[in-house]
Amino acid sequence: MLLNMSSETKEERKLALVIHGGAGTISRALMSDEREAAYRAGLQQALRRGWEVLSGGGLALDAVEAAVCVMEDNPLFNAGRGSVFTHNERHEMDAAIMSGEDLRAGAVAAVDGIKNPIKLARRVMEATEHVLMCGSGAEEFAREAGFEFAPPEYFFDELRYEQLLQARREDEVRLDHTPLKKFGTVGAVALDTRGHLAAATSTGGMTNKRFGRVGDTALIGAGTYADDQTCAISCTGHGEFFIRTVAAHEIVSLMKYKGFTLKEAAEQVVHVTLPELGGEGGLIAVDRTGNISLPFNSEGMYRAWMTSGSEAQVAIYPD
Ligand code: ASP
Questions:
Q1: 149-192 pLDDT per residue, tens
Q2: Residue 28 DSSP symbol
Q3: Which residues of the chain have pLDDT under 70?
Q4: Boundaries of domain holding 39
Q5: Rounded to whole angstroms, how far apart are CA atoms 233 and 252?
Q6: What is the C-alpha separation between 246 and 139, in angstroms, rounded?
Q7: Count of other CB atoms within 10 angstroms of residue 264
Q8: In a domain, 5, yes or no
Q9: Domain annotation covers residue 246
């Protein structure tokens, strides 16, 4: 009897998983069929991995971490292995994870050599009294905790290196602002069988960024947020604007204090608040009842989603 009741509850609850692989200048003209197929396959693989966790009754927190790990391991995405280069030819990765159930959060910023920064962010959340650790301190913590490090070759990618050289060249002629919008990021948000929400985001940041620069991804409330009372959000785009607008938490506030729906709040931030400052990018969000929203104001956003009762969907360009 008890078993029946719990399985009924499990069936009735809506599950939802949304992932992104970054927003930005994704031109159809410059995208080959092979490359597009590879991105789609990468997104599908990450979605499948996260969905396995969710549909097996797992935690939203585990599902978002699993999906993000798959994309961190795929050199196509700007996170983990595929992280872009900093101005001085290094990799500095940011990642954050948050549990909507209890507002616990963990994040790392400007870490180098760590294969899966999202796992480290989770460890910060679960094994320390802190929320955000950065640079050498975070790396030392990772070493002590037995985390897997990889040599620079693991993170080297010819295309990313060319992107850096190009961005540096353009900077020499245009010191104020590069016209190349070289960003990307990966993220996931989920609603699990217990009704809990979680969000995770991981990135190599922006090509040619100054070393020591930290983006919105690692900042709870800017690029990543989850609260069971409202929604879970993972952002992607030009991080400075998401920091200045506290974009992720702004959505929570609009829902909480102004009664906006998820869609209204997410679209307000992406299509009004960010553009008012000149901010480009997008985000993925899921609310406590399983509604999802994936707005972006850039040319494209790599994204995929699945909810109970619906097929997996993958998209890159606007509908
Ligand atoms: N938001 C990330 C950053 O600014 C980059 C991105 O999402 O593409 O570091």
A1: 999 889 887 777 777 787 777 753 222 233 444 557 899 999 99
A2: G
A3: 1-12, 171-183
A4: 16-295+303-309
A5: 9
A6: 27
A7: 15
A8: no
A9: yes
Total of domains in the chain? 1
Examine residue 1 and state whether it is found in any structural domain, yes or no: no
22 lines ligand 1 (CB under 6 A): yes
Which strands make up the sheet holding 313-315, listed edge to edge?
Answer: 132-134, 104-111, 93-99, 197-203, 186-191, 16-24, 300-307, 313-315
Cα–Cα distance measured from residue 225 to residue 21, given in angstroms and rounded to the nearest whole number: 17
DSSP states along 158-195 = HHHHHHHHHHHHHHHH-SS--S------EEEEEE-TTS
User: What does the pLDDT read at residue 156?
Assistant: 82
Predicted local distance difference test score (pLDDT) of residue 130:
98
Amino acid of residue 206: M
Q: What is the pLDDT of residue 171?
A: 59
pTM of the prediction? 0.91
**Whose C-alpha lies nearest to ligand 1, atom 7?**
236
Query: What is the identity of the amino acid at 227?
Result: D
Q: What is the CATH number of the domain that holds 61?
A: 3.60.20.30
Pocket test for ligand 1, best of 71, 160, 206 (most atoms within 8 A of CB): 206
User: What is residue 300's three-state secondary structure?
Assistant: strand
**Residue 111 near residue 87, CB atoms below 8 Å:** no
Ligand 1 in reach of 236 Cβ (< 6 A): yes
- Residue 162 tokens read as 């060319």
Residues labelled catalytic: 185
Residue 151 resides in a domain: yes
Residue 291 near residue 308, CB atoms below 8 Å: no
Q: How far apart are CA 19 and CA 183, in angstroms?
A: 16
* Ligand 1 centre distance from Cα of residue 27 (Å): 18
